[in-house]
Amino acid sequence: MLTLTSPVETPLHRLRAGLKLAALALFTFALFWSVSPLWLGLALVLVIALYLMGGTTFARHGARMMRPLWPFIAVIALWHLWQDDLYGGAVVLLRMVAAVAAANLVTMTTRLSDMITVLERLARPLSPLLPPRRLALALALVIRFIPVLSERAAQLSLAYRARSGRAPGWRLFAPVALAALDDAECVAQALRARGGAG
């Protein structure tokens, strides 16, 4: 639960966490600055190439981590088709997929401890208000929890469909919330066993 780092070693694993997070921030800024589907498409191709650089096993794992994004892609695509705005839809979808894929790539190639160290350094100016270690740990855990909870929601949705033959809709809210609370309690116990957040 505390790590989603891929066990498949890639050249990106050897880069410093701070460098990867800075590159991700710049890449995301460039994505939201651009309104050209051509440039956004090239950015997505670059991210896919970085996944493939780690080999097919690594790339397949990365693609599996992106599965929870498909419902959002479908809704956005249908909305823009209905609005007859293919250009705007292409920009939004390419931007979203490239940004999430890049963030997922950083998550897969960066250890949680390295991410906490970088975030702790960035949070030092806030030390009079909040201990940097706690803030860094909280941010790192949020980053790690999002894909885990998305995967859990997808599994619960599949289980509901298998039992009832219908889409779960609002019925999924309670089990996902309870699963999140259960995971949070397990992480809290693990942190307490290791001496707390520091």
How would you portray this structure in words?
It comes from Pseudotabrizicola alkalilacus. Belongs to the CbiQ family. Keywords: Membrane, Transmembrane, Transmembrane helix. The chain crosses the membrane at residues 20-53, 65-82, 88-106. This protein is an all-alpha fold and 198 residues long. It has two domains: 1-115, no CATH class; 125-198, no CATH class. It has helices at 17-33, 37-53, 56-65, 70-82, 86-109, 112-122, 132-164, 173-193. Helix 2 (37-53) crosses helix 3 (56-65), helix 2 runs parallel beside helix 5 (86-109) and helix 7 packs antiparallel against helix 8. The protein is globular. The mean pLDDT is 83.
Characteristic key phrases:
8 helices, mainly alpha
